[in-house]
Design brief:
CATH class of the largest domain: Alpha Beta
Number of domains: 2
Strand content: 15-25%
Order of helices and strands: EHEHHEHEHHHHHEEEHEHEHHEHHEE
CATH superfamily of the largest domain: Thiolase/Chalcone synthase
Structural class: alpha/beta
Radius of gyration: 19 Å
Helix content: 25-40%
Distance between the termini: 12 Å
CATH topology of the largest domain: Peroxisomal Thiolase, Chain A, domain 1
Largest sheet: 10 strands, mixed
């Protein structure tokens, strides 16, 4: 049995006083302290990071982490665009499956706010196809095209997207580590300046700094000493074409559908067994896609059901999503996001989520996307 036994995250936001590896160091030693584990008990480290090389000219990060830790254990870096954290987790899980009785640390981190918007956009856009880059498309533009197809196909309007940000900002106001701890009104969202129709500024996740870390183990002796742990029931990855034009459809993300079906099958449960889900809401339309692609809602129904705020905290419904605030409010330091998602599920399932605690949460899911859907990682957890 592989379990998550601890979690630590830095604050997400504009952390100008800290470097990438300042954040890494805080998260590394923060999670060790949280779990009361000595660094010598860690057998390997997996690091999710997207833009250290492009923005900071900062490669060979595993050796830098070894220097911070003062150990000679294996350290591996994973990069899958905005799914880099989820990829690091998946690889760590695979390592533990192959090496019984081991303990690993998984960390995701990104430093984005020290650079100009043009530099950050250029680095992020490197995760799209060459043709898309050459035509001037950025990720807001790509998701805007996907949103237009969805809204037209199912007869929705821009207003229907606003409920995603409204809900997630409410949740983010309850998270002291969130980039934005501020509730926003539907009117503010609907009237925010357009980035790429139908997506306005308040439909888009921010540029953030931050680092998150978890500890995973298959060591029965260590696990027996931990008071708070959750089991990894499954973790699955699917990849698709990097170009939108080569996808079977663009009113959803097929990689999510494939990874989700595999994850539910391996876990031996159905979508209605999940009480808490952290979904990849890089743009408001992405959460609607996820709800349908993962089988929580029927295809074409998300535009209506989100307006009923069915997945909002204390709504009385069986599923609550993005209690951390999601990418939209908690922030999106891209390498850290996938680990923060797992950490939020860990807090919820171990009843440590405070004012945003979901009652009787027994099973949770994380959904981490790279690019416009070229990578999808779906993981399921239980107590």
């Amino acid at each position: 049995m592989i379990s998550v036994i601890g979690y630590y995250t830095t604050k997400f936001g504009e952390l100008w006083e800290k470097s990438l590896f300042d954040l890494v160091e805080e998260a590394l030693f923060g999670v060790l302290k949280e779990c009361h584990i000595e660094k010598g008990k860690i057998d390997a480290i997996f690091f999710g990071n997207m833009m250290g090389g492009t923005l900071e000219n900062n490669l060979h990060s595993p050796s830098k982490i070894a220097e911070i830790m003062g150990t000679h254990i294996p350290v591996f870096r994973a990069e899958a665009a905005c799914a880099s954290g989820g990829a690091a987790f998946h690889l760590a899980h695979t390592y533990l499956e192959a090496n019984t009785g081991k303990t690993v640390l998984v960390i995701g981190a990104e430093k984005m706010t020290d650079y100009s918007p043009e530099e950050v956009i250029s680095a992020l856009t490197a995760a799209s196809s060459g043709e898309e880059q050459e035509s001037g498309l950025t990720f807001p533009g790509l998701y805007a095209m996907m949103a237009q197809v969805y809204l037209q196909k199912y007869n929705y309007s821009k207003i229907d997207l606003s409920y995603v940000s409204y809900k997630n900002h409410y949740h983010g106001s309850l998270n002291d580590k969130a980039h934005f701890r501020k509730k926003i009104s539907l009117q503010e969202i609907e009237s925010s300046p357009l980035v790429a129709y139908p997506l306005g500024v308040l439909d888009c996740s921010p540029i953030s700094d931050g680092a998150s870390a978890i500890i995973m183990t298959s060591d029965k002796t260590l696990l027996s000493k931990q008071k708070k742990a959750i089991r990894v029931l499954s973790t699955e990855v699917a990849t698709d074409t990097i170009s939108l034009k080569n996808r079977k459809f663009i009113d959803g993300i097929e990689a999510t559908q494939i990874a989700g079906k595999k994850a539910f099958h391996k876990a031996g449960i159905e979508p209605d067994s999940i009480q808490i889900a952290e979904l990849h809401d890089c743009f408001s339309i992405a959460e609607l896609f996820a709800m349908e692609d993962l089988g929580f809602w029927k295809k074409g129904s998300a535009g209506k059901r989100i307006s009923l705020l069915e997945t909002m905290l204390n709504s009385g419904n069986s599923l609550t999503t993005n209690t951390s605030g999601g990418l939209k409010a908690a922030g999106h330091p891209v390498g850290a996001t996938g680990i923060k998602q797992i950490g939020e599920v860990y807090l919820q399932l171990t009843k440590q989520a405070g004012s945003r605690q979901v009652k009787n949460a027994k099973k949770g899911l994380t959904h981490n996307i790279g690019g416009s859907g070229g990578t999808a990682i779906v993981s399921i957890f239980g107590v």
